[in-house]
Amino acid sequence: MLVHRAVGALVVRCQDGKDNAGASHAKKVRRLGRPAWKRSPDDTPLRDGNRDRIQGMLTTAAVKTLLAYTTETNQQLHHWLRRFSHENEIPMVGCWEDVSGDTFLRKLLQGELTSQGHQGMEALFDHTTPIAVDPANLAMRIMDIRTVLAKEWIDDLQQVAEDNGQLLKASLLASLELEAPAGVETLTETETLAEMEQAELQSALMQRLKDLETRDEDDPTPLA
Question: Which pLDDT score is estimated for 176?
Answer without folding.
Answer: 80
